[in-house]
TrEMBL record:
<dbReference type="GO" id="GO:0005886">
    <property type="term" value="C:plasma membrane"/>
</dbReference>
<feature type="domain" description="Glycosyltransferase 2-like">
    <location>
        <begin position="5"/>
        <end position="112"/>
    </location>
</feature>
<dbReference type="Pfam" id="PF04464">
    <property type="entry name" value="Glyphos_transf"/>
</dbReference>
<dbReference type="InterPro" id="IPR051612">
    <property type="entry name" value="Teichoic_Acid_Biosynth"/>
</dbReference>
<dbReference type="InterPro" id="IPR043148">
    <property type="entry name" value="TagF_C"/>
</dbReference>
<keyword id="KW-1003">Cell membrane</keyword>
<feature type="region of interest" description="Disordered">
    <location>
        <begin position="723"/>
        <end position="743"/>
    </location>
</feature>
<dbReference type="GO" id="GO:0019350">
    <property type="term" value="P:teichoic acid biosynthetic process"/>
</dbReference>
<protein>
    <submittedName>
        <fullName>CDP-glycerol:poly(Glycerophosphate) glycerophosphotransferase</fullName>
    </submittedName>
</protein>
<keyword id="KW-0777">Teichoic acid biosynthesis</keyword>
<comment type="similarity">
    <text>Belongs to the CDP-glycerol glycerophosphotransferase family.</text>
</comment>
<dbReference type="InterPro" id="IPR043149">
    <property type="entry name" value="TagF_N"/>
</dbReference>
<keyword id="KW-0808">Transferase</keyword>
<dbReference type="InterPro" id="IPR001173">
    <property type="entry name" value="Glyco_trans_2-like"/>
</dbReference>
<keyword id="KW-0472">Membrane</keyword>
<dbReference type="InterPro" id="IPR007554">
    <property type="entry name" value="Glycerophosphate_synth"/>
</dbReference>
<dbReference type="GO" id="GO:0047355">
    <property type="term" value="F:CDP-glycerol glycerophosphotransferase activity"/>
</dbReference>
Amino acid sequence: MPKLSLVVPVYKVQGYLPECLDSVLGQDYTDFEIIAVDDCSPDGSGAILDEYARRDARIHVIHLTENVGLGRARNAGLEKAQGEYVLFLDSDDTLSDGALTAISERLAATGDPEILVFDYARTYWDGQVRPNQRADLLKSDGPEVFRLAERPQLLDLLQIVWNKAYRRDFITRTGLTFPPGYYEDAPWTFCSLISAERIAVLDRVCVLYRQRREGGNILKTVSRKHFDVFDQYRRVFDFLDAHEELDRWRGPLFRKMVDHYLTVLERPGRLPREARAEFFHRASADYRARLPKGFQKPAGGRGHKYAMLERDAYAAMMSASTAVKLRRTVRKRTRDALNRSKRSAMGVHYQSQLRLPLDENLVLFSAYWSRSVSCNPAAIDAELARLAPHLRRVWAIRPDAVDQVPKGVEYVRVGSRAYWTALARAKYLVNNVNFADAVVKREGQIHLQTHHGTPLKTMGLDQQKYPASTDMNFEKLLERCDRWDYSISSNRFSTAIWERVYPCSYVSLETGYPRNDVLVNAGAEEVRRARAALGLADGAKAFLYMPTHREYQPGFTPSLDLARLAEELGPDVTLLLRGHYFYGSSPHIAELRRSGRIVDVSGHPRVEELYLAADALITDYSSAMFDYAVLDRPIIVYAPDWDIYSAVRGTYFDLLQEPPGAVATSQAELIRLLGSGDYDSRDAAGRRDAFRRRFCEFDDGHAAERVVRRVFLGDQTPLPFVPFDERSHAPTPAQALEPVERA
């Protein structure tokens, strides 16, 4: 029997769940169990729990067959708990370092009380940590163990269950369970505190309470479910009615009830406008029905609100709040004026176009900051031409890149009147990065964020922890992401990361990457054509080298001596070099090009054709590895500076431990791998297979079709995925030549 049982209810938290579990499993105290309850979560949370349970026997997972809500999910976990004490932890929150040791030691020092109350702090997306404003109530003044009557001010702590450890026999004896509905913490918290004979406190932050920017918080959800608060306080007072010995608490709990009702009524973003009067009248009825004899109203404005509630004076209450609303309106108008002033910098023309109706049949594409017609947006463009030819497809292209636009593609030059017209009028905006800050998200406009890779390196808000991103304005970043309606993902790993690091109100589309469809569907002819376009001889082996950008280096300086590598590999091997698009042209690349020892493909418009042409990929930390893995061809990770890169930029997993194939950390080792053929060994193939199954799970050749049908055609029926083991992929260069040789 463990000392502590932690009950963790889980629902739609795949982006936060690993951090929650890691915070528990990483504690220096080990005498605990985790009862994790998958409340029929529609995302990847259940699979994450199962994976953790496979690695650690202290985790017990319950998969509910229907969504029952937070309270009843906790009940399901409580039934399975075996510990002497039970703690509740919400699955987007975390434990602070050493929390369980501190809790266990305090329980022992206070003689195993029925309830131990500990502290928490709020954490925010921008890294702020704010202490509990009533932390003073947890100071160890007076007896170490006490009844609530000796410290009634504890009722003024936030009404939550996860800042306490409960002795399990006390829970059983008291008959405590969680009710359904919103505000389920109130009956449990109040009824347990007033019932306990022995309470202790711990003046230490043990829980980090995540304040999610978007989603996951009922307090920010407009719904009639906020009416559940009436049922919760009915349960509280039913408990009092059943326990005459607790009658002294009617006054304090009446005050808590009224304060809670007023909070729900007054806070914006909770009650639908048309339900506010009904809520007020029900609150007033509860007030009059439960008013204790001799109750003294609070002084000042709060007491005035109590009086209006007692009289059921809804009109008077609304009149009293008008002045407050008026002040808010004045402030809002001031902000709007400032925003209009800022937007005026966009130009009179853009402003005029924003006032015109949207063009329901116009799609504006951009890729890599309008540098090219490429990536996921280009694949979606092509599929739109097939499935929705009535839509007009236009690309935003920088003036210095228009000569690279393929023939027949309609485009507008970034900064031109036509560009601002398209931004203002297009129904659909598709990009693999973000549009500029100046772009206004119009009502009815749909922004589709395709991304341009599976993240190995940290992204979004996670970059705040690393020195490479100290100059990034994260508030502006999230304002840009607030414009997204859809976010595309090629695997559940990415979905969980995007939802955490870009915490905005978009819909995740787990479709696969449209740009990878060709890697599944291409045949021998496409492979031969890609090689011929690069001048690769039949039978020649081609290695594609794709290093990524390093923030700590000012320009492109390959960590490989490419000329020497070419010489070592011999004349039958061609090196295709594709520098990161951040670098552009560089003297070093020009010198290598003149030597003729490599083929510089940095300016090639379609990286997918390079993938088709190459026999193997050499890369360091580029997301190219995730896409190239779709082809099931050899991948060699060349990582001579892994320690530096992972420390400066941060990564989501250890690439040296979970690579997509062979790994080299020096040029000599790389040359040995390539020369001996060990880069294509059985061991390397096994690593590649595991990597593919994890990161290419949605790439079955139909990603673009899924996106077009959902976003542009409104089809809500998902296209089924081809089972992983039944998927094909483009033939290798050697396989593509076989028909030619037989002929």
